[in-house]
Each structure stands twice: as structure tokens, then as C-alpha cells.
Amino acid sequence: MAAARALVVALAAFLLAVSSQASKYSREANEGLADAKRREAGEFRVVRLNQIWEKAQRLHLSAVKLAELHSDLKIQEKDELSWKKLKAEGLDEDGEKEAKLRRNLNVIMAKYGMNGKKDSHLTDTNYIKDGTESDTLDDPRLEKLWSKAKTSGKFSDEELDKLWREFKHHKEKIREYNILLETVSRTEDIHKNVINPSEENLVKEEILHNKHRELKEKLRSINQGFERLRKVSHQGYDATSEFEEPRVIDLWDMAKSANFTEKELESFREELKHFEAKIEKHHHYQKQLEISHEKLKHIEGTGDKEHLNRNREKYAMLEEKTKELGYKVKKHLQDLSSRISQGLQHNEL
């Protein structure tokens, strides 16, 4: 009888072990299948964004630029998915939101040199490093201001780095404005050449008005930015200046021109301080990512697998953190810009 009981206990233990192992294998198999599906689905849920991402990885973009592109595409993905929902509900009848998405994607493609036009900015990063003198600002007025600032003796090395970042930001704003202007002009030309008047009537005045308002806001920002660069280049930095990050300075200048009450403006000022801290944190990770990338390239030539694996893990962590922070910064910038835009529109009413 005791032998029979022992046999039953042994059999139960065996079945439990088999069941546990099977569960483990099943779990691992399911997890592996989920990972495989994610890999197969791609980095993004929108097919054309995956195609752009895959193309970018084949280009000679720096680690920081790739992380920045990833953040831009994540914002684009969010906007496109939101638009698809609106379209399904019949809330984009005039197609203006869809047209704006196309314009935004054109800006992204041009920004990272994937629009078929060669550009010197492919190897740039978003922070200052040795060799900035070989870079160009593509605008004689900016070149003249920068040259005057460098030789004025009014700036420390750190302040020159900060000023160069402002010049580069201004150059990027001009590039984005020109791309937007080109796409809007192309759209208008198409409508002007419509033969059938009834088709032309389908083009709502409000659509063109929205496009021109967007251009007007960007041009206002460019003009304000240039005036600031001119003032700083001649006078040096004001020790009492509230903000240092170019994007935050732009937002604050525009906010002061918008239709905000004193209380709203003060609240906006505090939010900009938090936003600037977020940008600084992003810059820190960008620098660390670039350093890690250079170190990884060096170690790959040594053949030390253990050292290589450790650095690959660190690089992957920094890359993920940089992407995450980049997305948060761009999303926050988008939200702040939208609020200012609404205030400026209210001024025009």
C-alpha cells in the first residue's frame, strides 16, 4: 500500500513538473511570438513612416539625428492616427487636416535630407562640438552677424556656443518656412489652373486662409528671431535674460504678443521654465548618446566581446531615453505653440 502511495506521489510530481515546464515553454513561445510580431509590424503603425525610418537607418545620419527623427516620426504618427479617426467620423470634409499632415511630413523629409536634395546638415548634431566653423548658415545676413559676434570679444566660449545654437535654430526655422511656402504655392497653382469653374468653387477660402495664417505666424517668428540675434550679436547677452534655449525664447516672445491676460502670461512663463529644464535634460542625453556611439565604434574594433556587450546595452538605454525625451519635448512644444497660435489668432479677430 505504501509503495502504491509513493508511486502516486511520484507520478503527481512528474505531471506537475511537466505542466510547469510546458507552461514555461508556452509562455516563452507566446512572448517570442509577440516580439516577432512587433518586429514584423515595424517601428511605427503607419506604413509610410516605417518606410521613412528604414530608409533613414541606411543613411549616414548621426546617432542624435536618428533619435531626433524617431521623435518627429512619433509625433507625425500620433497626428496621422488622430486624423484617421476624424476622417472616419467625417470631420475633415475639406481635407485641410490631411493637407497639413502632408506638409509636415515634407518638412521632416527635408529636415533630414530625405527629400532627394543634398544638404550639409546630415552629419550635424543638436549640440555644439568642435568644427562648427565648417558649417554654414546659408544666409549672408546671419553669416555677417555671426562673424561680428565672434570677433566682438563680448562673448565667452560658453556664450558663443549658446549663440551658435540660436543661429542654427534660426536657420532651421527659415528652412521650414521655405518648405511650407513651396508646398502652399504648389497647392495654389493647382487650384488656379483648374479648368472647370465648379471645381474651383470647391476650394474653400478658409483653407487658403489657414495656410497663409500658418505662414504668417512662422514669418513673424523668423522676424522676431532675427531682431533678437541682431540685438544679442551687437550688445552681448543680458545677464537678466529669463531664458536661454532658442525655442523657449521664441515661444516667450510670441506669447508676449498674444492675447493673454497677465495671469495667463505668468502661468505660461512658469510652464516655459519647466519646458526649458526638459530641453536641457534632453540635450544632456543627446550628448551622452553621441559619446556612447563614438565609444561603441572604437570598441567594435578591439574584439573584446564582454566589453562590447556592456557598451551596447548602455548605448541602447541611452538611445531609448533620448527618443523618449525627444518625443516629450516635441509634443510639449507642439502644445505650447498651438496655445500661442490661438492667442495670436484672437488678436486678429
How does this structure look, described?
The chain is mostly helical. The chain is 78% helix and 0% strand. The protein contains eleven helices and no strands. It has helices at 2-41, 47-58, 63-88, 96-111, 140-151, 157-192, 197-200, 205-235, 246-257, 262-300, 305-348. Helix 9 (246-257) runs antiparallel to helix 10 (262-300) and helix 9 runs parallel beside helix 11. The longest helix is centred in the last third of the chain and has 44 residues, at 305-348. The termini are far apart.
Characterize this entry briefly.
The protein is mainly alpha-helical. The protein is 78% helix and 0% strand.
List the defining traits of the structure above:
78% helix, mainly alpha, globular, 349 residues, 11 helices
**Structural class computed from helices and strand pairing:** mainly alpha
Biggest beta-sheet profile = none
Strand content: under 5%
**Weakly predicted, low-confidence segments:** 27-39, 120-134
Count of beta strands: 0
Distance separating the two termini:
96 Å
Shape: globular
Radius of gyration using CA atoms only? 27 Å
Give me the number of helical elements.
Answer: 11
Question: What is the residue-mean pLDDT, rounded to a whole number?
Answer: 80
